[in-house]
Amino acid sequence: MSDASTSAGRPDGHTIVIRDNAHRVRVIHGGVTMADTQAALTLSETGLADVFYFPREHVNMARLERSAHTSHCPFKGDASYFHLRTEDGVVENAVWSYEAPFEQVSRIKGYLAFYASRVDRIDQTS
């Protein structure tokens, strides 16, 4: 990882750190590469597993279908969701994005993240 990072801390001890990730990160589902980048961001948040955020231009957007589902994170803002279209059907709300995140996490604006539990693999290699 490079030295570029953004850190947002709160008085209650909850922290979010966003780092550039220079490794190759891929999402593979059903044998199809859904995302492939060497420009991911890694978001580390108190109490949660690290999450890779992908630039849209490195995601197979033809496989995504916008969902009506939304959620709110008190630390990042409102998330929009996408279904993942596969040969075997639709994986509902498998991908999310913060279109207008809070200022302290603005680096993830427009990036996409995949639920690891809803895809076959998320690989990070050199």
Per-chain topology:
Blueprint: E1 5-9, E2 15-21, E3 24-29, E4 32-37, E5 40-45, E6 51-53, E7 64-73, E8 77-86, E9 89-97, E10 112-114, E11 121-125
Q: How would you sum up this structure, described in words?
A:
The chain is mainly beta and 126 residues long. It has one domain (5-125): Beta Complex (Metal Binding Protein, Guanine Nucleotide Exchange Factor, Chain A). 0% of the residues lie in helices and 56% in strands. The chain contains no helices and 11 strands. The strands form 3 sheets. A 4-stranded antiparallel sheet has the order 1-2-5-6, with no helix packed on it. It has a 4-stranded antiparallel sheet with strand order 7-8-9-10, with no helix packed on it. A hairpin with a 5-residue loop joins strand 5 (40-45) and strand 6. It starts with a strand and ends with a strand. Pfam families: NTP_transf_9 (PF04248). InterPro entries: DUF427, DUF427_sf.
Mean pLDDT: 93
Question: Which range does the strand content fall in?
Answer: over 45%
Largest sheet: 4 strands, antiparallel
CATH homologous superfamily (4th level) name: Domain of unknown function (DUF427)
Text of the CATH class: Mainly Beta
Report how far the terminal alpha carbons are from each other: 11 Å
CATH architecture: Beta Complex
Q: How many strand segments?
A: 11
Radius of gyration: 14 Å
Element string (H = helix, E = strand): EEEEEEEEEEE
Give, in spatial order, the strands making up the sheet with the most strands: 1-2-5-6
Number of domains: 1
Tertiary shape = globular
**Residue share in helices?**
under 10%
Helix tally equals: 0
Note poorly predicted spans: none
